[in-house]
Design brief:
By secondary structure, this protein is of the alpha/beta class. It has helices at 3-12, 47-52, 59-70, 103-120, 130-137, 143-146, 165-169, 174-199; strands spanning 31-32, 38-42, 78-82, 89-92, 95-98, 124-128, 151-152, 158-162. The longest helix has 26 residues, at 174-199.
């Protein structure tokens, strides 16, 4: 990680811009290649990520890894982060269940995400799920309707969106999971083709 990214990570670890730091174990900052052409942005860390201090290392991370591998994308060449850096949860017995972050919490974390994009300078940013997409593309963005569309940005990169890998885990049955996984992988293949077009 570059000195600049490491400095931002250190500062973000002490972030108190919203109240999520009070219940999250730690700030979960992005990680991956500091020269990544591809940045993946999820919603927020989950339970496993909160404990490990790393993004996408739990069940959704395994789905993401599978999709990337099938799409021909090396995860080690990607930068992975979240729109919100602390785990928002509610207790259900002994379990900590994910709770969707609100607009205030997303806005409080936006400077960290902007800084990551500025420092990494990816060619393509993929929003995984509605929260990340709305954080970067506006509250009216609908993943169900605008999935896969490319949105060029003034800084030179493009933003696109697909589903969050956790939504595949929540599919009603095995057939639905298989269908949704295939669609997710195809989205990532399109991203890979876009990256190759940039490099041509």
């Amino acid at each position: 990680m570059t000195d600049a990214l490491e400095e931002v990570r250190i500062v973000a670890a002490e972030c108190r811009a919203c109240d999520l730091w009070k219940t999250g174990t730690q700030t979960v900052f992005g990680e991956g290649s500091e020269t990544a052409q591809l940045m993946l942005v999820g919603e927020q860390p989950g339970d496993k990520e909160d404990l490990a201090g790393r993004p996408f290392v739990g069940p959704a991370g395994r789905i993401l890894d599978q999709g990337l591998e099938e799409a021909g994308i090396d995860r080690s060449s990607v930068y992975v982060t979240n729109a919100v850096k602390h785990f928002k949860w509610e207790a259900r017995g002994k379990r900590r269940l994910h709770k969707r972050p609100d607009a205030t919490e997303i806005a409080a974390c936006r400077p960290w995400l902007d800084k990551e994009i500025e420092l990494v300078q990816p060619r393509v940013v993929v929003c995984l799920g509605a929260t990340a997409a709305q954080a970067l593309l506006g509250r009216s963005f609908k993943v169900t309707k605008q999935r896969g569309e490319l949105f060029p940005q003034p800084a030179g990169h493009v933003i696109t969106a697909t589903v969050h890998p956790s939504s595949i885990l929540r599919a009603a049955d095995a057939a639905s999971r298989e269908s949704e996984m295939a669609a997710f992988t195809e989205d990532l293949r399109l991203v890979n083709r876009q990256l190759q077009a940039f490099s041509a």
